[in-house]
């Protein structure tokens, strides 16, 4: 080739290599973590996110913040994926995972300055993560989880979040009651919990409905607004004149033929009401249209009917009342129908909602959320979703651990004690992992108004003397205390997932030394 350079990249491509690539990736990851750090803990702050169209989201939920941010840097997007994975797997701890991943990158940056090879850092981080998982297992609270434990877990997940005029303590009671309603021998049927937000009224009007709420109004204004002890049918069909399946042309030559055609059509329409009435149906949920004349006839017969019900809602109603979805009114069987203690239509402002309560198979439940503004309702919904997820995780995925940063202090101390037995430079990476984990109690301390360095020293001292220490928010500041005595817990699954996902993302970023991008 005569020493001529070989060009393999497009002229429009850019390339960043070596330390510049590492520095760029680490800086991006740290920036994302820093963006959500102030939201951590019971005294965490909110973020206002405004998109290009002017739509506003106000929240301190880590996953929501990162999803709403317009992030372009690929390494920063990997931190966003950490939060999304955390949300998908356990439903909470997204800020914890993102902050930990950012601090692991910050520690790796210092190790690079000490000429520690990226592979060594990766090996050390993975070894430390293994030790961390063992530490989590050791401090998991033993014994059966009672309602008090579950309420504490739910309350911890919601403390500091915007919940309007209803406190986290009352919401925690509702959440635990909700989860218990869908607990089976196989575990928690999380999909059977629906959330129905409704703007208007105070947040304290939030309640648990043992059944399903659907955003539907009666097909005819003259239909009854409520039916007690109702026989319910779920119909996957149109209640109207059936159309021919082939193209056909009818030639009507006299008035008798016209009258006969009209009578046949009217007879078909009357037949729907007659068949439903004869079968004893009180309430019908129809996934297709109801012709106006049919709706009027149903109203005269005292049947409450809803049309164009969505497939998801129809499925939920059928499960709640124990009904089968019916595609034809021929040969109706009483076993096809369900039962509800009450079906009622209630009006909220301009909206009408149908409440189907006390179904024969009332495993499906609904949290009916209220709030004075859309922002309040949205944040309340996010808070309750997190609380439902953490209670489910506590019951289904391995119990609870002390909260308030106590678990992170225990992890850091355990990792440091085992680092002494690790040879070579990998020991430095293991120790750096311990330092990174402590960013979480430091952040909690800062967000509660404490000096983070003094708080960390006090935490270590208290842990050495009593074996457990966390940051407990008190008034306008915080103090070092035993989180178990204070009733502050987190699901063990949240901590395990945060350690795993943060470590995986940080080590992946650390190994990158070349960025090739198309401009």
Automatic annotation (TrEMBL):
Keywords, comma-separated and alphabetical: ATP-binding, Chaperone, Nucleotide-binding
PROSITE patterns to which the protein is assigned, alphabetical: TCP1_1, TCP1_2, TCP1_3
InterPro entries: Chaperone_TCP-1 (IPR017998), Chaperonin_TCP-1_CS (IPR002194), Cpn60/GroEL/TCP-1 (IPR002423), GroEL-like_apical_dom_sf (IPR027409), GROEL-like_equatorial_sf (IPR027413), TCP-1-like_intermed_sf (IPR027410), TCP-1_chaperonin (IPR053374), thermosome_alpha (IPR054827)
A molecular-function term among this protein's GO annotations: ATP hydrolysis activity
Keyword Secreted: no
Ranges for region Disordered: 1-25
Family assignment from sequence similarity: Belongs to the TCP-1 chaperonin family.
Protein name: Thermosome alpha subunit
Organism: Halalkalicoccus jeotgali (strain DSM 18796 / CECT 7217 / JCM 14584 / KCTC 4019 / B3)
Biological classification of the source: Archaea, Methanobacteriati, Methanobacteriota, Stenosarchaea group, Halobacteria
């Amino acid at each position: 080739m005569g020493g001529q350079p070989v060009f393999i990249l497009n002229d429009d491509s850019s390339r960043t290599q070596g330390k510049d690539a590492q520095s760029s990736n680490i800086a991006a990851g740290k920036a994302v973590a820093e963006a959500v750090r102030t939201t951590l803990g019971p005294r965490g702050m909110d973020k206002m996110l405004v998109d290009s169209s002017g739509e506003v989201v106000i929240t301190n939920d880590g996953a929501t913040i990162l999803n709403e941010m317009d992030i372009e840097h690929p390494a920063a997007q990997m931190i966003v994926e950490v939060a999304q994975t955390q949300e998908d797997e356990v439903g909470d701890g997204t800020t914890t995972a993102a902050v930990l991943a950012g601090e692991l990158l910050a520690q790796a940056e210092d190790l690079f300055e000490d000429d520690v090879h990226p592979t060594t850092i990766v090996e050390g981080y993975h070894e430390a993560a293994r030790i961390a998982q063992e530490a989590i297992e050791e401090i998991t609270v033993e014994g059966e989880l009672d309602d008090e434990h579950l309420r504490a877990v739910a309350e911890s997940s919601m403390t500091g979040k915007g919940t309007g005029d209803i406190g986290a303590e009352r919401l925690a009671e509702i959440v635990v009651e909700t989860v218990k309603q869908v607990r089976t021998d196989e575990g928690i049927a999380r999909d059977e919990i629906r959330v129905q937000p409704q703007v208007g009224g105070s947040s304290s009007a939030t309640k648990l409905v043992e059944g399903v709420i659907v955003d539907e109004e009666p097909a005819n204004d003259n239909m009854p607004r409520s039916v007690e002890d109702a026989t319910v049918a779920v119909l996957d069909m149109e209640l109207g004149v059936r159309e021919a399946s082939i193209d056909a042309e009818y030639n009507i030559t006299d008035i008798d033929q016209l009258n006969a055609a009209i009578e046949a059509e009217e007879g078909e329409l009357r037949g729907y009401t007659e068949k439903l009435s004869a079968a004893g149906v009180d309430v019908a949920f129809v996934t297709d249209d109801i012709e106006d004349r049919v709706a009027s006839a149903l109203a005269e017969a005292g049947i409450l009917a809803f049309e164009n019900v969505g497939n998801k809602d129809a499925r939920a109603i059928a499960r709640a009342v124990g009904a089968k979805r019916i595609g034809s009114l021929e040969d109706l069987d009483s076993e096809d129908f369900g039962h509800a203690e009450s079906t009622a239509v209630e009006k909220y402002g301009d909206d009408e909602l149908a409440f189907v309560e006390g179904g024969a198979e009332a495993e499906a439940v609904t949290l009916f959320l209220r709030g004075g503004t859309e922002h309040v309702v949205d944040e309340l919904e996010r808070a309750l979703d997190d609380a439902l997820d953490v209670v489910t995780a506590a019951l289904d995925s391995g119990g609870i651990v002390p909260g308030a940063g106590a678990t992170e202090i225990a992890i850091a101390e355990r990792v440091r004690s085992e680092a002494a037995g690790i040879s070579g430079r990998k020991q430095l990476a293991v120790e750096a992992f311990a330092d990174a984990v402590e960013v979480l109690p430091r952040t909690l301390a800062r967000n509660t108004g404490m000096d983070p360095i003094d708080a960390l020293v006090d935490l270590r001292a208290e842990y050495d003397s009593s074996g457990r220490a966390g940051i407990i928010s008190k008034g306008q500041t915080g103090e070092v205390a035993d989180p178990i005595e204070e009733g502050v817990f987190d699901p063990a699954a949240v901590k395990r997932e945060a350690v795993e996902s943060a470590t995986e993302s940080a080590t992946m970023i650390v190994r990158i030394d070349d960025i090739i991008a198309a401009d």
